[in-house]
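Note to self: user wants both folds in one dump. Writing first protein now.
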Amino acid sequence: MRVLILGGDGYLGWPTAMDFAAAGHDVAVADNYLRRLIAEKTDSEALIPTPTLSARARRFEALTGKKIKVFIGDLADSDLTFNMVRQFQPDTIVHYAEQPSAPYSMRGFAEARETFQNNLDVTFNVIWAVMEHAPECHIVKLGTMGEYGTPDIDIEEGWLEIEHKGRKDKFLFPRAAGSLYHTTKVLDTDLLWFYVRTYGLRVTDLMQGPVYGMSTPEADLDPALGPNFHYDDIFGTVVNRFLVQAVAGIPLTVYGGGGQTRGYLNLRDTLQCVRLATEHPAAKGELRIYNQLTETFTVNELAERVRRAGDTMGLKVQIKSITNPRKEKEEHYYNPTFSGLIELGLKPNYMTDEVLADMIERIIAHKNAIAAERIMPRVSWN
């Protein structure tokens, strides 16, 4: 396949590009370094410095003989997006190219507007670029489990059959996002669904839970090929933050009561899921939705897992509850369905003590670069 990966500089984008290239596909990546710019602006830079996309692509080619084409530019520019799709003629577009931080989207008006305009403009441009220049292309869009919120019913995979006054129909599962970032992802889904049913696009929307991990077969070839690793309150996931706190000797900061339950996913499984989605493309006029996670647990359970892994390595990890800066339910029902990708062939990598220990060892190697002031919450929803 000819695979175009948007947001190819990101934590998921770059490993995805290497995974497809290693499998023999013709791969191109596009990015405008928005995440890097925001990270510098907010003092939220990655723990481990990463080379530019072009430098990483050259290093990957030197090690594997596989070439990754690089486009640098703003996908919110419709001319650039149209020209890129026209030139590359992708069979599949993997769309990661959005401002990915919930806290950043809640900092204030400027950040909210930037998130809203970037995320919706890019998705809109991608849709029209495909319609105009690659109408058979399959769009694989990264959604988020955060779109659903925490309803008091089981979360189905994207769709819900409803019976009302003796009649039945199928609708997109109700959404109740907890940040502006997550709300833009809801709007993405609605936008894609409109163009799917109106113009016959083929789209797979992957509702992904928080991802953790630093190891993939290609990333392990050379430190320069590793994924971005953020541990701050803007771009760092709770897993990354807890692991860095364990290494730095800072108590793991559980927001509020710690009963918030989410579905988690190893980085290696993200690569599996995206590959499976592209290898089993949606039909023309179909919006197919998968919930992309492999296990669920509360923040308290996650903290205990990190404490246990850290203690076996002599870190003497402590856990501390702090005021929750977010507006969210801290105790709630959470039972998402996630069988679709497993039925396609996903073989999960679970969050074992060994997996956490491997991440801790990698963080220890960069312990001197940890900036403790980046860890505590700097953004409040209220």
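First done. Writing the second protein, which came from a different request thread.
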Amino acid sequence: MDLKALLTISVADKVFANPKRILLLQQIQACGSISQGAKFAGMSYKTAWDSVKDMNTRLPEPVVHSEKGGKGGGGAKLTAFGERLLQMYALTQQMQDMVLEALQDQAIPMNSLLDVMGHLSLQTSARNQFSGTILSLDNSITDVSANHDNLNVRLQVELVNGLRVNACVTQSSCARLSLAIGKPILLLFKAPAVTISCTRQPDEKQNQLRCIVHEIHSNSQTTEVSLALVGKNSLDSRPVQMIYASIDTLLANQLKLVVGGEYYAVFSSSQTIVACMS
């Protein structure tokens, strides 16, 4: 389906900007004239002039600056605020299009704008991107492996499929990102940060998620594995979430990996990168 959404901005329940007025502003910006802008926007000069006058007086800052001239009016250009209005409108349309695309893709969670943007617009080298919500923060741990005494903050995060994982960030990052209980975040980590185990190990520092092997691709040195996470509820109808691992082929052979086999995807909380909306 080719879904479309039309954005209308209102002030005091009265239309301030809509697709027709935005098109008019775009044409004024391009040709420097209200009369020519009206022609290219497909509206009468009176309608265009009334629209510009209305937008110029509805907010403290005008959107168009015009100069008096001869027949048909003088020159016109957008103010700095008018240019920002066009930029805002274009950005909002992009977000609308992403949300409409996500609506038609059951694999994309729609719990927050961060979910949609993370799956459709955020391009990173990290193949694993999990969206979730912070359940708790613990700042009483010290990252000994990093050879410093700065306290880190351990986050417990509930993923959209109900599974829980841990992530670790510095206190400064926690403050800079304004992390708090209930905040939606994205967890990012590369495939080489994930290893695979046949059994669950007694190691609380490692995230261990039960998975079923979906695909295996190997060469003499590296084996790339995609695994489907097994949710907490076997009757869960939500789309299957994938996790990707890149391991040594020797280890893959030792594990006797097979498509359809059940294993554990293991990764350290310190290997995750946290992203969020401010």
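Dump finished. Worth passing along: The radius of gyration is 26 Å.
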